[in-house]
Each structure stands twice: as structure tokens, then as C-alpha cells.
Amino acid sequence: MDRLARLRRSLVELFPERHLYVRSGGEMKGYVLTSRKQIAAAAGVSAAALWMGVCSAAMLVNMLSASSADREVARTQAKYERWIADRQARLNSAVAELNAGGGANQSLAANIEKRHAALAMLLTDMKGAPGAAAALTPVINEAVMTKDTNPAHMVETVRVSQEKLLDAADSFAKSRADRLRLAFRLAGLTPAAYMPKGGALGGPLIEAKDPRALAAVLDVDEGFAERVQHAAADMGEARALQEAAQDVPFARPTTGTEKSSGFGVRYDPFTSRPAFHSGLDFPGGPMTPIHATAPGVVSFTGVRSGYGNTVEIDHGRGFKTRYAHLAAISVKVGEQVGVGQRIGGMGSTGRSTGTHLHYEVWVNGRAQNPDRFVKAGAYVLQAG
After folding, report:
1. The whole model's pTM is what?
2. Rounded Cα–Cα distance for residues 120 and 114 (Å)
3. Model pLDDT for residues 303-360, shown as the tens digit of each residue
4. Which residues in 123-132 are b (16+ Cβ under 10 Å) and which e?
5. Does residue 316 come out as left (phi exceeding 0), alpha (psi in the -120 to 50 range) or beta?
6. Angle separating helix axes 2-14 and 35-101, nearest 10 degrees
7. Torsional class of 258: left (φ above 0), alpha (ψ -120 to 50), beta (otherwise)
8. How far apart are CA 348 and CA 344, in angstroms?
9. CB neighbours of 140 closer than 8 A, spacing ≥ 6?
10. Which residues contact 88 (CB under 8 A, 6 or more apart)?
11. How far is CA 191 from each of CA 41, 180, 194, 244, rounded to the nearest angstrom?
């Protein structure tokens, strides 16, 4: 009590009662600024200053993080460009020396130079793919570090590095496409149904179905053109599946929680009789954040019989998700939501025996096993 009294006296001394007089229109008005009012105003100003400081610091951190990410992307793209430029410079030098000397390797050098142009197109098409840098950078670094001043040896070195890089690019594209196809099959989906109509993937390297036609366009041998086309086709399929996967509910609705009751027949906790459970349960603490598992439009919010507080999201392509037993709802009908956006808090409303999320996935009006989509999502993340 003595300390509180001393603190009170200190505040009164710091903020003594003040009188403010304002003259307007020939009239004098007086205002009394009590110590309490001054303390409240000072507290408000301090809180506002603290909030501005926190916001400024957060913005600065975000700017620095974004700048770091941008620099990393720029460095990755520069590796491809350096490799292409380095190979082209070596080829130009070797071809010039061989032409000047009338060597027998002129045709080989010219053929490798044409291969280089085709390979550069493939790398340009692949450089934006997630994971491509990690797969191709070791081969590129090895090629760039190789030095040789003999023109014939330079041409052969470029040819070998082209073969290695094409093999690495083909393996990466095939692995990424296979992993995405497997992810769709794990979810019970047919990958071909999510490819562009007519199988048209686009891109200059895969427009021609016949490798001979592509070889004529690129002016390279047919075997090399076929390998380039195969890698480009796998890359195009992987890109199409990756774009389709962004609209499929592959993400987890909660983080840091384990699954409990699964999809299918189980004993009902209220009747102790077998009953069909149309979703997947995630137990957790009250108000644990619930996230949208794919982008879409909120189609329902409110109370459904047995489900309690519920949110339903239409993701397009026939996909819908339902999040039930919520304690709170953070979205409204018609709102556009993104993947990972918070839509509510976990609760135990409706027909529930404890705090948990009841999560359902519907495809074309039929309930599916959400666990398959959750597991498939892990493969999508690895492929991405």
C-alpha cells in the first residue's frame, strides 16, 4: 500500500492538474486537465507509439525476408544463364579455331552447337520449376569448372556435359511428374482427368508429336531431339498437375494435431452401435486454428444438425470440404479464401464428445476419405 501511495504521489507530481484557457469569438473558456486525464492521454500516446514501433519492425523484417528470397531466386536463375553463356562462349571459340585450322571436327562442333541451343530452350523452360535448381546445379557446376584450352577437347567436354545435363533434366522431370501422378492416385483421383483437354501441354519443345519433326526444327539428330522432347513433355505434365493440385484440398486442416477417428464404419460413441463416419477427426485444444485446405469460396456457415457450428467451402472442379464442431467461425458466405487461411477455431459444438475438428471431403456430391487427401498432400509438397 505504501508503494502504491508513493507511485500515486509520483504520478501526481509528474502530471499536476493543469488549466487550459481558450479564447474564441470574444469569449474565454476554461478546461481543467486533471492528473487522471493526463495519465490516460499519456498512456494512449505510449500505446500508439509502441504499436507503430512493432508494426514498423514487422514491416522491416518482412522486407528483409522478401529481399533475401528475391536474391536467392536471382542467384538460381543466374546459374542457368551463366552455364548457357559459358557453354556458348566455349563453343564459339572452339568452332572458330577449328574452322581456321580446317580440322576434321568441324561438323561435330557445329552439331554440338545446335544441341546447345535445344538444351538451352529446355533449361529455360525448367528453371522456374521447384526443385530443378537442386537437381541440376551440381551438373552445371561441374561443367563450368572444367577447363581445357584444346579446341577439340573443348568440343568433346561440352558434348559430355550436355549429355550429363540432359540425363539429369530428364530424370528430374520424370521423377516430379511420377510423384505428382502418384499423389493424385493416392487421393483416389485420375491424373489424366486434371490434364489440359486434348493433352495439349504447350511449349515449343512438345508441340510437335513426332521427334523427327522436332529434330528438323531444332536441326539436331533425332535421338537427341527425342530425349529433349521426352523431358519437356514430363515437365509440362508435372506443371499441369501442379497447377491442378493447387485447387485440390491436399493441405491439412490443422497443424500440430494427430488424427483420431477415421473414415468408414465405427461404433457410434452415443449409441454404441456401428455407424458410418463420413469424415476424419482431429482432436485438439479449444480454439485451435482451423485452416482451409484449398482455395475456394465459402458456401455455408452456421449450425447443421449433428455437426454444430460448421463451415463449408466450394473449391471448384467438384471439390467441397466441411469443417464441423467449431467453437468460432471466422469467415462468411461468399468470401474467397486461400489455402491455409484461418476459417475458425476448434470446439465441441453439435453431436460431439469432446473438443475436436470433424473434417469431410466431397467430390462430385460424394463423401471421400479425407485421410487419402492428407497423405497425398505430403507427396505434393515433396514434388513441389
Report:
1. 0.61
2. 10
3. 998 899 999 999 998 999 999 999 999 999 999 999 999 999 999 998 888 899 999 9
4. bebbeebebb
5. left
6. 80
7. beta
8. 13
9. 79, 80, 83, 165
10. 116, 120
11. 63, 8, 6, 9
Asked if 187 contacts 372 with a C-beta cutoff of 8 angstroms, the reply is yes
For residue 291, list its beta bridge partners.
342
Q: In degrees, to the nearest 5, what angle opens at C-alpha 75 toward C-alphas 72 and 78?
A: 150
Quick count: other Cβ atoms within 10 Å of Cβ 254? 20
pLDDT in tens, 12-64: 777 787 777 777 767 777 777 787 787 888 888 888 888 888 877 777 766 66
What's the gap between Cα 24 and its chain centre? 62
**78-81 — which CB contacts under 8 Å span 24+ positions?**
79/133, 79/137, 79/140, 79/141, 80/123, 80/124, 80/127, 80/136, 80/140
Q: What is the pLDDT of residue 307?
A: 92
- What span, in angstroms and rounded, lies between the C-alpha atoms of 283 and 253? 12
Q: For 151-160, how does the pLDDT look when each residue is reduced to its tens digit (9 = 90+)?
A: 566 666 777 7
Specify whether the CB–CB gap between 302 and 323 falls below 8 A: no
Q: How far is CA 326 from CA 266, 303, 330, 350, 361, in A?
A: 22, 10, 10, 9, 17
- CA 359 – CA 312 distance, rounded (Å): 10
